[in-house]
## 1
Amino acid sequence: MARKAHRTGQLPSYLAQSHSEGPPSGSRRARAEVQFEEATILGALFGQFDANLVQIENRLGVYIAARGNRVQIEGPEDAVARTRDVLRGLHARLLTGHEIDAGAVESLIMMSQEPTLEGIISGHEDAPSVVIRTRKKTIVPRSAMQIDYMRALASHDMIFALGPAGTGKTYVAVAQAVSQLITGSVQRLILSRPAVEAGERLGFLPGDMKEKVDPYLRPLYDALYDCMPPEQVERRMASGEIEVAPIAFMRGRTLADAFVILDEAQNTTPAQMKMFLTRFGQNSRMVICGDPRQVDIPGGDAQSGLADAVRRVEGIEGISVIRFGSADVVRHPIVGRIVDAYEGKEA
């Protein structure tokens, strides 16, 4: 069933769209056909009004025609191969019970440049090691670097996740922490971040200590509630199984049998970072997330504890450093372009 835009004589997307990332003109052209057996899920695969197919066309510079359970692809040779992988990946996600949205399509388009895509999406033996299951959802990698990140979260004691906003550093770490808390491999989940304003002076905040620091910790709460039912979060927080607190509350403690996450770590001083890292206890895992380019420490010339720590500890056994880039942004494609625009000018 060809889409209406193609039947009415409009230009195929790979000719009409100027912002696709398809290969330059002159590449060898090719055709391919993909056939799907499970016709009942093709509506979800193609999207409402074939929105998923149109998105793939616009991003990869190909022409796609769907007829029944067969999909024909035409365009530059490597773009056709990537399109075939993306469609198979979306199909595999639907078969395993995952929903598909524009973000899922975009993530597979980005990952189609990586040789690991086939193993992640099609149920190969490596797939379980890069899936995180929580009470509310199953999280799968949405960028190439998230594959390495998820594997590091499952195998290393201490992980530094560096990179721009929107790459999933904190969200994926919280999901892994919730998964381990549910399975009982850790007894506590501790989420922390420095109470530093992002370039603004917020002034006096009314209320008790919790009400004063909660605005700084809101992103951690958001990720937590996205992975667990609200009533379970509240119950576990009341029992002390889940703790959300500013980094100042970590001094003097030993964090054993815990999954500990420090967010916005670029806003710690070297002294704070040393204090935090040395809280590490038996049977624990610690994740330090931050963007070294977004330091908001008061004083202007203050050194970031995140950059200092990575320089000192990278290479130590049991410690992994994952570096995300603008290509790993999984919010909206324009966010990655914005990051590139800012970082290019700063460079």
## 2
Amino acid sequence: MASKKTITIEQIRSPNRRPERQADTLVGLGLNKLGRRTTLEDTPATRGMLKKVSHLVRVVDDK
């Protein structure tokens, strides 16, 4: 069985004064505070969520 690709992201900006939908997307990604990091499976759904909040997060590790 092949190992699944993962992506590690970190929240670098607050969702304050942004649409509620963007805050909900961060929670869906497992982020809710500045500096938090999470590792997720690299899927098209995850990539789409990252694209919507790309101004609030950064990719730390892309394997």
